[in-house]
Design brief:
The protein is an alpha/beta fold. It is built from 13 helices and 17 strands. Strand 15, helix 11 and strand 16 form a beta-alpha-beta unit. Helix 3 packs parallel to helix 4, helix 6 packs across helix 7 and helix 11 packs parallel to helix 12.
Length: 423
Amino acid sequence: MSTMRALAMVCRRWLDVLAMRPEYWEQLKINIDGPTFIPAAIETFFVASRDNPIEVTVYPREFEPCTLTAAQERDRWALIMRHMAPHLGRLSRLSVTTYFRSTIVFISQFLDGATLTLEELELKSRQTDDTSPLQISTLRMADIESLHTDAESFVNLMGAIEWLSGSGTLGKIGITGYRPESPLPAASPARLIAALDKLNGLDVRMYILSITNVKFDPNDLPSDTPSLRSVALLTLEELEGPFVPIICDATRSSVHLEDIHVEKCETPTYSPLPPGNLNISGIPSGPSLLHLLQGFEGTDIILYDCQGFDDWFLGVLSVRNQTDGRFQACPNLQNMELRDYHFSASALRRMCEARYDNTQTRIKSLSVYGPKLDDESNAWLESHVEDFSWEERELSELERLRKLQELLSSMGGLGSLIPATQM
C-alpha cells in the first residue's frame, strides 16, 4: 500500500489509473438523503469493482428527520437498482434501511428470480406505510448467515426462497420494525409462526432469533403452534398483541435455548417463558410480569427497571401451590440479579425466607442495585444467601417525583408533579 500511495503522488493521471484498481471498490455505503448520494460515484463503483465480491449498504441519516417523500426515496432507489441489478450475483452483503416500507416493496421487484450468494441480507424500514407483499415469486439463496427484515417481508421471503444448499449456515434471524397505522392490517401471528416453522425443514442446527418492535393482529391466531427446535437465543422487544405466548410455546422444546431477553412486552394472557438464562426489563405491570414468569422453570433471572416487580410481586414469588407444595411462580429460581427500585428490601428478604427451607428452592445468589437496605434485611441476607451483594441506588430527581406520583396516585391522586416536558 505504501508503494501504491507513492505512485499515486506522481501525477493526477497515475492517481486516476490506480484509483480504478478493483480492491479499492469493495464496499459502497450511501446515505440515501445525504451528501454521499452521488449518482456518478454509484455508477463508477459497480464498474470499477469488476468481478470482485462487493458489499452495499444504503441507509437514511441517523438521528435526522425524514427529508424525502416516499416517491423521492423510490426515485433514488430506482437509480441505485438500475446500476446494481446486473451485479446482484456478486453481492456478499446487502444492507438496506429505508424511510418507507413501500420502498422495500419497490426494491423487491429487482430481486425477483435472482440467485444470491449473500452472507447477510437486511431489508428494513422506519415507517410501515405499505403492508403489501414483496414483489418476489422466486429467490434462490445459497449460504446465507444472517437475515434481518420486517415481519411481513420475512413471511414473503420464506415463501419465495429456494435454498440451494440447505442453508445450514443460517445463524441469525432478525424480525423487526413493522407497526402499520390503522386501517392498515397489523402483522399476522399465524402467518409469522408458519414462516418460522419452515426453518425446521432446513439444515439449520441452531440460530439466534430476535423479534422487535412489531404490532400483531389479535384476531389472526394459529390453530396450533409448531416447535422451533433450533433456537439458541431468543430476544423479544416491544411486541404489541398476542404473539408473546405463541413464540414462548413454540420455543419451549428447543434443546439449544440458553438465553432469553424480554423487554417492554405487555402480555394480557398466560405466557410462560421457556427455561433458560432470563434477562427481562421494562415490563410495566405486575400482571404482565406474572404472565411471563408464573410458569418459568429456569434457575436464573436478571431483571432491570420493571415497574411490575414490586412488593406485591415478591409476595407472589413466596406463595406455594396447595396441591404439590411447589412455588406458583419461578419454582426453580436460585440466582437473581436485580437493577430496580420499585420493591423494598424487607419484601425481598421475606421472599428469600419463604424459599429457604429447601436447598432446591432457596436463593443462592442475589445481586441488587436498588432501594435502601435496612439493617435487619442486611443481616439476614448476608447470613443466608451464599453469594450476596447490595448497592443502594441513588434516585434522580425525576425518579423521585415519579415515585412520589405513584404513591399519591395510590392514595387517590393530587394531580401530576412531573413537568409535562419530562413525562
